[in-house]
Amino acid sequence: MPNNFNVFLQYCCPKHLASRFVGVLANCRWIWFKNWAIKRLIRKHHIDVSEAISDRLTDYPSFNHFFTRHLKPELRPIAKGENTIVSPVDGTVSQSGKIEKGVIFQAKNFFFSVETLLGGSSERANRFQQGSFTTFYLAPRNYHRVHIPMTGTLRKTIYIPGSLFSVNPLTTMSVPNLFARNERLVCLFDTVAGEMAVILVGAMLVGKMKTVWCDTYDTKKISTHTFSEKIILQKGDELGHFEMGSTVIVLFSNPHIQWDKNIIAECDVKIGESVAVFNEI
C-alpha cells in the first residue's frame, strides 16, 4: 500500500484524464501562457537553456515544443567502440544490474517480472532470463529525447496500455510493479551483443510517447508490429521522445554485459556517455 499521501492521491485521481488535460495545456499556443509556463519550468528546475539549439522563447510555439527541445549536437559526443554501450538519455539511473529468476529490481522490496513488462509473452521474456537491465529516470529538468544505446536493427514494437502513475523516486519506492503496470512501448532490436529492448514507460501527465518511425499508437489495446523493412539506428541516433517526463528501461539478453562501476543507483548520466561494455554473445 502507498506510504505517502501524495502517492495515495495517485490511486484515487483519474490519471488518464489529468494527463490529457495537461497535454492540451502543453500544446496551447497562447503566447502569454506558453511563455509563462516555459519561464516557470526554467526557474523551478534550473534548466540550462544554453544547451538547447535555441535559447529564444519565440522559437518555441508551445510549452511542449520547449519541453521536447533539441540540444546542440556537439554537447553530447557518442563514446566510440563497437562493444561500448552508451546512455540513451540525460537522466538518473534508478537501478542497474542482472535479471534474476525473471524479475527486475525496482526499489527497496519491490520487484517486477520481465514477462509482464514485455507484454505477457513468456517466450519473449525467456530470451532475457540471463541478461541485465538499467532503469533511467528523466526528471522535468532533463532533455526528453531518447537515443539508442548501441547500433541496432528494429525488429518489433509492442504497445501496452496501462496506468499512469508518476515515476518519480517517491512513487517508485511506494507503488508495487510500477513499471510493469504503467503504459509502455517496448522496442526490440537486434544488435551485435544480441537482443536489446528499449522500453519507454509512460507516467502521470505524460502526453504522448513518439518514435522516429511512428507518431501514434493505438492506446486501447496491446498492439504488436513486426518490421519487415530494415530500420537501422546507429549508436546515439534519436529513437523517440516523451511529451512530458518519464522512464526508460534498457534490457539486454547478453549475459556478458558489464556495467561501468559508476553506473549505480542515483548517479546522473548524459546521452552518449559509456555505461557498459560487452565481451561476447
Overall structural class, as computed from helix and strand content, comes to alpha+beta
Task: Give the N-to-C terminal Cα separation.
Answer: 41 Å
According to DSSP, the number of beta strands is: 17
Can you give the mean pLDDT?
85
| 3D shape | globular
Radius of gyration, taken over Cα atoms and rounded to an integer in Å: 18 Å
Overview of the structural elements:
There is one protein chain. This protein has 281 residues and is an alpha+beta fold. The chain has 8 helices and 17 strands. The strands form 4 sheets. Strands 2, 5, 7, 8, 9, 11, 12, 14 and 16 form a 9-stranded antiparallel sheet that branches. A 3-stranded antiparallel sheet has the order 1-17-15, with no helix packed on it. The chain is globular and about 55 Å long.
Concise synopsis of the structure shown:
This protein has 281 residues and is α+β, with helices and mostly antiparallel strands. Helix content is 20%, strand content 31%.
Fold topology:
Elements: H1 5-12, H2 15-26, H3 31-45, H4 63-67, E1 84-86, E2 91-98, E3 103-107, E4 110-113, H5 114-117, H6 122-126, E5 132-137, E6 145-147, E7 152-160, H7 169-172, H8 178-181, E8 184-191, E9 194-201, E10 208-211, E11 223-226, E12 232-233, E13 238-243, E14 247-252, E15 257-259, E16 268-269, E17 274-278
Antiparallel strand pairs: 1-17, 2-5, 2-16, 3-4, 5-14, 6-13, 7-8, 7-11, 7-12, 8-9, 9-14, 10-13, 15-17
